[in-house]
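Kindly draft a sequence, keeping tokens residue-aligned:
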Amino acid sequence: TVPADVLVLLLWAPWRGLLGAPLAELSGDQDFQLFLHKNLEFTRKIKGDAAALQRVMCATFQLCKEEELMLVRRDLGIAQAPLERCHGRAFQAEGCFSQIREGLRAYHGSLAAVLELLPEHASLVETLQLDAANLSSNIQQQMEDLGLATVTYPPEGRSPLPAFSSHFHHQVGSFIILANFQRFLETAYRALRHLAHL
């Protein structure tokens, strides 16, 4: 959990130095800071649930280490949702928010593969899907409130869900989807934290 004093800083901190984003006029905007604060916590919660599902995959199928699956990963060709607009010098608020929103929608769909594989853990998977949809909606609403352009990035020519040729590939594919989702959420979390940074 985040210490109370850090949450207060996140909530009230005037943020500045945002590279590439015409949002300087929002410095100190309490509604925007509240949005960031709530959705940082929400992103952390979703990340925790994705990690819990990865532990289920480890316990159920002995799929625990991504580095051991690199050859199969290449064969499956499961793409990571892009977030280059949320990184370093390329950071651009409208683009970053749009990519987070689009990525959450993609993972909402991809998690169907995990649901098929782990029907006995349907409630956890469905919660993860619902939370991904809700976070995407939160970001969409905030972009509209801020008057930011919503950019839709076209898919990069790949279906988010490959046709798995075997049950083992379905297991590995689901593990990789969860691992990708974890990395995606970590980048999204850092981007939101950057916006709230002192």
About this structure: DSSP finds six helices and no strands in the chain.
